[in-house]
Amino acid sequence: MKIYADPITINCRKVLAGLDLMQAPYELSHVDYFKGEQKGDAYLAINPNASIPAMVDGDLVLWESNAILQYAADKTGSETVYPRDAAQRADLNRWLFWESASWFPACYTYLVENCVKPLLGGAPDDNVLQANEVQFHKLAGILDTRLQGRDWVMGSRATIADIALAAPMHLHGWQKLPLNEHPNVRRWLMHNVESLPSWDKTWVGEGFTLERTLKKAA
Fold it and tell me: In terms of residue numbers, what domain contains 44?
């Protein structure tokens, strides 16, 4: 599998962390998001949506990050991260659809306003943030209820659902996501997801950096 991605973005990190979780081999082709390389003719021939990531595996070309994870899990036989049981798979798929349709946009507003705009010299729009709050808390409450008494979305093991749902929150501190009202989401994200080796391996920091700096002791 060849993955076209920029590891700094939400959906690209999602795919890379998910592939690492299932230990799927892949080749990474870097597509620089801030340089707009996803809009170039060569990439548009792969994904006419001009969005990343995309995957090429032989004759198969896939866009949509969750579809890539589903395919890779099936190809590698990774049933622990994507169960084959019909009921469990339907349950998991529901969270993938919910993430892309509802959860991603609710979290992305905070990323744009509190991260991207200031980085480009602008300022957050408080009206936009306030208008998004009700929807965010409604959705975070749904996820919080799901995580009550659970270590992971599907129970006792991390799956691609956890990776997908955590991805839009991957810069939660810099994003200023209002998580204090949702203790189960905080616990799951900060203690469970962030302790996964696959999540740590795909770390992204404030400023969309992939370089970690060690703080020197005073």
Answer: 2-76
Report helix angle 10-21 to 104-111, nearest 10: 120
Residue 45 CB: number of other CB atoms within 10 A? Answer: 9
Here the tokens at position 96 are: 């993938």
Q: Are residues 136 and 176 in the same domain?
A: yes
The C-alpha atoms of residue 188 and residue 167 are separated, in whole angstroms, by 13
CA–CA separation, 167 vs 122, rounded Å? 24
Position 111, amino acid: L
Using one digit for the tens of pLDDT, what is the confidence trace for 104-147? 999 999 999 999 999 999 999 999 999 999 999 999 999 999 99
- 141 lies in the same domain as 48: no
Residues 182 and 93 reside in one and the same domain: yes
Domain boundary among 35, 50, 76: 76
The total number of structural domains that make up the chain: 2
Identity of residue 134: V
| pLDDT tens-digit readout, 178-211 | 999 999 999 999 999 999 999 999 999 999 999 9
Is the entire prediction scored with pTM above 0.90?
Answer: yes
Length of the chain (residues): 218
